[in-house]
Automatic annotation (TrEMBL):
Source organism of the structure: Marinobacter alkaliphilus
EC annotation from Swiss-Prot or TrEMBL: 1.1.1.271
Residues annotated as domain NAD-dependent epimerase/dehydratase: 8-229
Reaction equations catalysed: GDP-beta-L-fucose + NADP(+) = GDP-4-dehydro-alpha-D-rhamnose + NADPH + H(+)
Pfam families listed in its UniProt record: Epimerase (PF01370)
Enzyme superclass (EC): oxidoreductase
Protein name as catalogued: GDP-L-fucose synthase
Annotated positions binding substrate: R189, W204, R211, D280
Job of this protein: Catalyzes the two-step NADP-dependent conversion of GDP-4-dehydro-6-deoxy-D-mannose to GDP-fucose, involving an epimerase and a reductase reaction.
InterPro entries: Epimerase_deHydtase, GDP_fucose/colitose_synth, NAD(P)-bd_dom_sf
Designated gene of the protein: fcl
Family in the record: Belongs to the NAD(P)-dependent epimerase/dehydratase family. Fucose synthase subfamily.
Amino acid sequence: MSNNRSKVFVAGHKGMVGSAIVRRLKRDRGCDIVTRSRNEVDLLDQNAVREFLISEQVDEVYLAAAKVGGIHANNAFPAEFIYENLMIECNVVHAAHQAGVQKLLFLGSSCIYPKFAEQPMKEDALLTGTLEPTNEPYAIAKIAGIKLCESYNRQYGRDYRSVMPTNLYGPNDNFHPENSHVIPALIRRFHEAVQGGDPEVVIWGSGKPMREFLHVDDMADASVHVMNLELGSYQANTQPMLSHINVGTGVDCTIRELAETIARVTGFEGRLVFDSSKPDGTPRKLMDVNRLVDLGWRASIPLEDGLASTYKWFMNNCDVVRG
């Protein structure tokens, strides 16, 4: 950022990623953070978003707002996932342009890559194959967001960047028993097993698929790092024809290893039962993070440490946590 204080709008500040970005920006004390709840500015309302950004005259936008969920939610509500995500990104990006906002960071998802993409997944794997059917509507919306930013850059000379995080977890995650992702779902399941004295915990699938997990505070730090890169450095190191950057740890583990770690963190001493009748999904999903490493950033929070702090947050908030 420049020596003058910047006015920064964080869209989606109440969510897991948005709240982490707000925490990260507060550490710098170099900007004035602008936030709005959905009741104050509905990001699905084009006119409301345009009027807000024009009136606020912000310098930068972090677009962390999105409709998110696990496999069940994506399967059950495909129309809501594609519609709401498309509308949010279209409204915010276009209104930012109309308001003269030069810098914007769009947060996507690793699900943009083909189901059978070569591992680890590089940025240039985008649009080279078919997507995972269970979350295709969400993935298509996120791909559209990347191309939206790329198009405003090409046509109007904007500096709208995109980062693609791997699987995220941490404070303010969604711990709903049906609509959450694997880490919050397992944390809740193991916690309830400990509380109830259950002898076993059943986990969907064989436990063999491999996944990569990134603490949301690392994601926020990477987002600010990418946003603050000088444009010349950013372009020189990321190849301008590729309009997004992967964010991850570059390390994965099996679902079995993840479950065993969560069992340790939560103090569960019973049996782990893997239900192989349930789908495993893609055998492996790992991000190639060499581009981000070349740009000077690496993840710093080890998985077990991050899980322990997330469980502590869950314990402190389990009476009011979502779901």
